[in-house]
Design goal:
By secondary structure, the protein is an alpha/beta fold. The protein has 16 helices and 35 strands. The longest helix is centred in the N-terminal third of the chain and has 19 residues. The two termini are 36 Å apart. The structure holds adenosine monophosphate and magnesium ion. The site of adenosine monophosphate has 18 residues, from helix 12.
């Protein structure tokens, strides 16, 4: 199930209305809607006002068919045994009814929570479990200090309250009076349950899918991130609801839903507990802003939606140089994919969404780098050394459990932890032994043939940077450092559609002489998969505006970005560009590039569309040069610049200034770049013949055999 609207509530157990002027320690509500960067916050002076606001919001969202996840920063449950003692049943929602029957909470916040707590204490032997009240109350059943309680039999905390900063549910007064917030909050939520019936589910107690889902939250879970992202002088409560709502809205729907179902069916659970890294990454993703001065590839994450006018080109520009077009694309785009956590072993090809640090040093302990004999360096000297051997040996996974006395040696194998008393190892090949003594030539170098603990990576050091496309060696590193789960971006969904009346969708269908089989779609789908995107086949459509529009609608629903081919110029039959001009926000970029006609860039229902040329050669070149870095950026992996190599040309060519040119090329046996015999842009065979492209500069060029040229292998474009 997915949530469209995320509501985060910072609750209050105050006994009178909060100040008129928005203040801290009052009720704050933050609302984020999936897919938009905007987050609303509101301030409420009373619980009554806040509850009415929530009810109105829930009703509006339900009417609009939007699913709501609403989180509250007070406990939904009590330590095991409490519910049964109070209500006769272990079911926490039966307890909710019992509590709300007792609580009175007036519209001005006046309430009877201390009296209710004192009455609840009566159910238990001894004194407690509730404690904390104003001096004026003077009820002996409700002690003023926690230490005055005894014999009530309840545990102090729920399993999920054992996290840093969490307060026990029994405390009613002063700092973090969680107990009061819960008693008063549960009564209000019970009223909402009554009002919305089966349309409202309380997780993890209730498991049915409902339009409105309530969960318990603890904003302190991501306290450092909230502090880092808060606005200047922002009230902490406001920052908490704003940032947490935005973070939750960034999560993958599947993952968020799974999180709401975690935890204990009696005590309840704090949403996101154990997933702090993911929540923090999501929060940073929601608020990171681009730094216009920074000319490094931008790997910073930003809000999910692209602006409708993001592809606008200044008027009057006729031919855009390739580099200008790339810079413009780079600035227009940002990451759009949600985040999820994957086991390290399944994260290959995914993009890391947050920096991760080493959980443990590698190696964790000093150990031997070779097979040989270990001893204390201090007890050895120059000349021939004869050291008696201790019984036993040290091997990888079989540590030697005793100390090795000074002046003695031990048989030690590669990877074995250095036993106590050993700091130096002599290589087996440099020794002689009769099984009781080892002999070698001194002096040995101190710590020779040993590895220090943490010499590779120390615990707490940066291990992998966010934005990294995870490769096999990265998984080795993460695993070696004890990192079992990684926060990653979900794969970018790339839709591919071909257009043209002459196109037959696949070679398993007959083609009349005036028809051709679709070559672009399988090519672009394979490119997208090779770039670790989720390639979505949107099929072929004839040159009919209505059918093209319907297919783009489908693409906008199912994908993050659409690649079309064909019909992208400005001619009579160029229906894609005509349609995008009419109904989308088209920017036709006339790029000074050969091969390649204008690149049509547009937003369609909030989804970017790359209108590639129909010609397969131009379609491939434009995809490699423009779509690849753009898709990489949108996927969270940052802008990519293909690595090229300067090699001698094995061909001759004279080129005029004005347009950059890409030639289908491959390397000869001598490592020179040869180019395909024909530059005809319909020659698909040349694409397959080639192993890469030769890039000729925008300026004029005169190439003869031996002239250095830039060769970019297909592999540098991530083409496999
Ligand atoms: P267009 O951009 O629609 O004017 O098409 C330019 C050229 O590319 C024409 O010769 C088309 O027939 C050809 N073409 C367009 N789409 C494809 C495709 N999917 N597969 C192969 N050739 C295509
Ligand atoms: Mg066409």
């Amino acid at each position: 199930m997915s949530f469209d609207t995320i509501v985060v509530v910072d609750w209050s157990g105050a006994s009178s209305p909060s100040p008129v002027r928005p203040s801290k320690d009052a009720i704050w509500i933050g609302v984020a809607r999936r897919g938009t960067a905007e987050i609303e916050t509101s301030y409420h002076r009373t619980r009554h006002d806040a509850t009415e606001t929530l009810a109105t919001l829930f009703e509006a969202e339900r009417a609009a068919g939007r699913r709501v996840l609403a989180g509250f920063d007070f406990p939904f449950g009590y330590p095991r045994g409490f519910a049964e003692a109070v209500s006769g049943e272990a079911d926490p929602l039966t307890l909710w009814r019992a509590l709300s029957d007792r609580i009175e909470d007036a519209p001005d916040n006046a309430n009877n929570r201390f009296a209710v707590a004192a009455g609840l204490n009566d159910v238990f032997p001894g004194i407690g479990p509730f404690w904390g009240c104003p001096d004026s109350l003077g009820d002996p059943r409700l002690p003023s200090k926690g230490t005055l309680r005894h014999g009530h039999g309840m545990t102090e905390r729920r399993a999920c309250d054992r996290t840093k900063g969490a307060q026990p549910v029994w405390k009613l007064f002063t700092t973090g009076s969680v107990g009061s917030q819960a008693l008063l909050g549960i009564a209000r939520l019970q009223a909402l349950r009554h009002r919305f019936g089966p349309d409202l589910a309380v997780r993890p107690f209730e498991r049915h899918d409902a339009p409105i889902t309530l969960v318990e939250l603890f904003p302190s879970l991501i306290a450092p991130t909230v502090e880092a992202l808060a606005e200047d002088n922002e009230i902490k409560d406001r920052a908490q609801v704003r940032i947490l709502a935005a973070a939750l809205a960034q999560l993958e729907p599947r993952q968020l839903d799974a999180m709401t179902r975690e935890g204990d069916a009696e005590e309840g659970w704090i949403l996101g507990l154990g997933h702090e890294t993911l929540l923090e990454a999501a929060a940073r993703a929601a608020f990171a802003t681009p730094d216009p001065l920074e000319d490094m590839p931008k790997t910073d994450l930003m809000p999910p939606r692209l602006r409708d006018d993001c592809f606008a080109m200044p008027q009057g520009v006729r031919w855009v140089p390739v580099d200008d077009a790339l810079a413009k694309l780079h600035d227009a785009l940002h990451p759009v994919t949600g985040l999820e956590i994957l086991p390290t072993a399944r994260a290959a090809g995914r993009v890391l969404a947050a920096d991760v640090t080493a959980k443990r040093s590698n190696p964790p302990m000093p150990n031997s780098a070779v097979d040989g004999y270990g001893f204390a360096h201090a007890a050895t000297g120059t000349g021939v050394q004869r050291l008696p051997l201790v019984a036993g040996r040290a091997a990888a996974g079989q540590p030697y459990p005793h100390a090795v006395p000074p002046g003695h040696a031990i048989r030690i194998l590669t990877g074995a932890i250095l036993p106590e008393g050993v700091d130096t190892v002599v290589l087996e090949e440099d020794t002689n032994t009769d099984a009781t003594t080892v002999v070698f030539d001194g002096p040995a170098k101190p710590r020779a043939n040993t590895r220090k603990d943490g010499e590779d990576v120390a615990a707490g050091d940066p291990a992998l940077p966010k934005g990294r496309r995870l490769r096999a060696p990265d998984l080795a590193l993460a695993s070696a450092l004890g990192i079992g789960e990684l926060p990653v971006h979900r794969p970018l969904r790339v839709g591919v559609v071909s257009t043209g009346d002459e196109i037959v969708s696949a070679p398993d269908r007959p083609a009349a002489p005036h028809q051709i089989w679709d070559a672009n779609r399988p090519m672009l789908l394979a490119l997208a998969s090779g770039w670790h995107c989720e390639a979505v086949d949107l099929g072929h459509v004839p040159d009919d505006p209505e059918q093209i529009a319907a297919r783009l609608d489908e693409g906008a629903r199912k994908t993050d970005v659409i690649l079309t081919s064909g019909g992208a110029s400005a001619g009579d039959e160029d229906h894609v560009s005509a349609l995008l001009r009419q109904r989308g926000t088209l920017s036709s970029w006339r790029i000074a590039l050969k091969p390649g006609r204008p690149l049509a860039l547009a937003m369609w229902e909030g989804t970017p569309v790359f209108g590639l040329p129909g010609n397969p050669v131009a379609a491939l070149v434009c995809a490699l040069i423009f779509a690849r870095p753009a898709l990489s950026l949108m996927a969270g992996a940052g802008w990519t610049v293909p690595q090229g190599f300067t090699v001698p040309a094995a061909f001759s060519k004279r080129k005029k200034p004005g347009r950059r040119e890409y030639l289908r090329a491959r390397l000869t046996e001598e490592g020179h770049a040869e180019v395909f015999a024909s530059e005809g842009s319909g020659r698909i065979s040349g694409l397959s013949w080639a192993d890469g492209l030769v890039e000729l500069p925008d300026e004029a060029a005169e190439v003869t055999p031996g002239t250095p040229v830039r060769y970019i292998p297909y592999a540098s474009f991530g083409l496999i």
